[in-house]
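Q: Fold this one first, please.
A: Sequence and structure below.
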Amino acid sequence: MPPLPSHNRRARLADIAAGILRKTLWMLLVLWGITLISFWVIHLAPGSPTDMETTLNPLAGEAARQRLEVLYGLDRPIYVQYWDWLLRLLHFDFGNSMSADSRPVLTKIMERLPLTVGMNVTAMLLTLLIAIPVGIASACRQNSLFDRSVTVLVFLGFAMPSFWLALLLMMFFGIELQWLPISGLTSMNYEQLSLWGKLCDLAKHLALPILVYTVGGLASMSRYMRACMLEVLRQDYILTARAKGLSEGTIIRRHALRNALLPVITLLGLSVPGLIGGSVIIESIFALPGLGQLFYAAVMARDYTMIMGNLVLGAVLTLFGNLLADVCYGLADPRIRNAKDDA
């Protein structure tokens, strides 16, 4: 293909830059709408951050409650509180937590973020590495013994609650066999271990939570991949490729797989926000200091600033997931990439 003239290249780069700018502005507008609605909704919930510090303290009266409301800025109208919070957010300042420690929200989030994101990303990669080949094999061997066996296992995965699976794994691997620890992030002698010993200790403590995450996503992802592959294999161009004498492996790799991956990419983009919300139960069962526990504690204590910090993080992950899905669309299907370039 001959290279494009310089003026055509400049025009195409200008179109790409304009598209990126439009998408960025739209994402900022959506993020602003999410923060506006979330800020209003959490203030409608019964209770207040001052309840935990005054109701349970017999020495704290109404005067103490009023002083705390002034300290937290809760005595002002809600639109004034939101405006002040939004101005701080523009400077990447999420404010201080309304809990007893009064630490910066961003600091507390960054302390918990690596653990939660690391576990979920690892589980997501393991899920893809297992679910995609299993889904393809089930679709290519429809109604075979392998397909029926995988179907039974998948339905068991759908029906099994994550907390129940976690308890079973804890009883079997942690109590009966005593191979893996059942709670916490590190052992008591963690600081005395070598670097390799610390890595092994972390891996042992995170093995069961990551296994629960992987099993939970494996059931739906493999079934979704099977359905998408079956739909693609029924298309006319697949029949044409078979009529030309192409091998089944070539048809799957070069023609069917990319088209079957597009719906899976959408599912992955939508699952990115679940990195936080889906971690509450597992982190509570295994006593892991992650974002899920932090968010749950903030909701129970009506810690408005901490709740908003977690909601903003979830909104950013949602928008990032959609953007990542768009990029993966172009990588998986060149027609989409070319259509975007020509638009």
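Q: Good. Now the second chain.
A: Here it is, same layout.
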Amino acid sequence: MLRSRVLRPTLIVSVVLALLGFGITPTSAATPISVSTAIGRQDGSTATVTGYVVGQPTATSTVVRSNFPNDYALALADSASQTGTSSMLYVQITSAFRSSYGLQSNPGLLGQKITVTGTLSAYFSHAGLKDTTAFSGGGSSDPGPDPGDYYAGAEGKTGAALKAALHTIISDQTKLSYDQVWNALKDTDQDPANSNNVILIYSGRSQSKSTNGGDPNDWNREHVWAKSHGDFGTATGPGTDIHHLRPEDVSVNAARGNLDFDNGGSAVSECSGCTVDGDSFAPRAAVRGDVARMIFYMAVRYEGGDGFANLELNNSVGNGTAPYMGKLSVLKAWAAADPPDAFEKRRNEVIYATYQHNRNPFIDHPEWISSIWP
């Protein structure tokens, strides 16, 4: 006796789709997935993946971050600071995209967030994305990492209310010791073109990470908000906050001292483009906006409620040991003339993802500067 078989509705749909030429895949290429999802889904399907460029794969377990040999491949990760190759997706760059996305031609892409469409298939005998058909993001027009709902509490606010909301948001942070700052700066300020070096903030010199110390031509930990302005020294808190601590040549650090920031003055030895006079200092033009945004961060983060002085901006120089930093009008002009670049955005992301777990809001939203300090 023959028994009739009842086809389940889901099976019927599958059969119909197959007859029409539609394969059923676990994901749609139109909806971006994370790198970790792509690594776990090496099934030959087409996918769109979003991640941070962390280097160029040259072998199954080797990814280089400088001296890129060609424009044929790049590695993506879910964090710009990722160093483990097992957490990276190796991306084949097809010929149409090599001039725009190959790392030999575009080393500044390192640390940038991009989106790529291709086939989820092994590359270099490693989890990969091959036969790529589309790239987007990266470059100077890239808005940088999206902090998601990090700033939800500041939405719709302006002026003093915005400053108060941002203070609450960014005060939730992990604090480092002063010794821990050394290793953190070797990561946050790494030279994109040479992973063995850091970039010195004021002078711009690329210098070996291992030459940190106190001898002439070593690099040390510069407090961009001078630690005597509020007398916080190197205490855990403002004295160790790497949003304003940067590598700098020992003698250039000494030349800056605890001066406020302003235009004008005489040239500074070993610091091309820097100037100094009796009451102020100016770094090279390429980082004047960076300096300004660090100062604005400090004035919002430290409001006097955690045992330290209330740090504020004014339009003066020669502030000495008072908890003030100037010159406000000049710092605002510097921030406008020098908007956040890829290096500064990567630095903000690494601090957020790896070290302090808070952000500098004026890198993510430069427009908030004029709202708080009109």
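Q: Anything worth noting on the second one?
A: Confidence is low (pLDDT under 50) at residues 1-28, 139-145.
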